[in-house]
Amino acid sequence: EPEVTQTPSHQVTQMGQEVILRCVPISNHLYFYWYRQILGQKVEFLVSFYNNEISEKSEIFDDQFSVERPDGSNFTLKIRSTKLEDSAMYFCASKPTLYNEQFFGPGTRLTVL
Amino acid sequence: AQTVTQSQPEMSVQEAETVTLSCTYDTSESDYYLFWYKQPPSRQMILVIRQEAYKQQNATENRFSVNFQKAAKSFSLKISDSQLGDAAMYFCAYSNYQLIWGAGTKLIIKP
Fold first, then answer.
1. Radius of gyration of chain B (CA)
2. Which end of chain A has fewer CB atoms at under 10 Å, N or C?
């Protein structure tokens, strides 16, 4: 069964460094999402992406964040200059049409020191 | 703005018993989807069950069923014959495009 994959599973970085979190959505899916979950807190929407552009983003998704679909298969989230409060689990999700449930990847745990 | 509320931070149930997790939401939309996701300690997000708002019939998936009350904006999850593997965080989520999440309920299964 096809699934969303994410790499790395765990990333440790120093404050101020750039990180790129990678996702490979399910191949025939058209809608892509990033969410984050700070430990012990609720899941928060970051951004949605469709037709090679951002369709919606939350207040969290400020200028430090960017997303890209560089090659038709990968979907990346870049954090330009990480802060301590960026430490969280980051989930990628995709779905084939607007009216399906989202399929989640296993998450990347980001630790900012 | 849409919101999702899960008023039970933690619930416990005896193995083989039935437990109901509560969820309420607020929206002015008439067409939307509701989901229950399970997050075990591995932190993987696993879809348990989905409900389309236009369907009056409550969704069922094996031991999992929902009580969807559209007028009351309530969407509870019933787990029958609870098993040790059901222990996890359970999140209720609302969607008409992006997912809006509740704070989660930690379900403990007592052997």
1. 13
2. N
Q: What is the CA radius of gyration of chain A?
A: 13
Q: What mean pLDDT comes out for the span B54-82? A: 95
pLDDT band at residue A82 using 50, 70 and 90 as cut-offs: very high
Asked whether residue B1 carries a pLDDT value surpassing 80, the answer given is no
Q: Quick check: B26 and B48 in contact, CB under 8 A? A: no
A35 touches chain B (CB under 8 A): yes
Residues of B with CB under 8 A from a CB of A: 33, 35, 37, 42-47, 50, 91, 93, 95, 97-104
> Nearest Cβ partner of A104 from B45, B100, B104?
B45
E strands in chain A: 5-7, 10-13, 19-24, 31-37, 43-50, 53-57, 65-68, 75-79, 88-95, 103-104, 108-112
Closest partner residue to B35 among A44, A101, A109, by Cβ?
A101
Nearest residue on chain B to A6, judged by CA atoms?
B44
Answer whether the bond into residue A96 is a cis peptide, omega within 30°. Answer: no
Size of interface A-B (CB pairs under 8 A): 51
Distance CA B9, CA A113 (A): 29
Question: Which amino acid appears at position B17 of this protein?
Answer: E
pLDDT tens readout for residues B35-65: 999 999 888 889 999 999 988 899 999 999 9
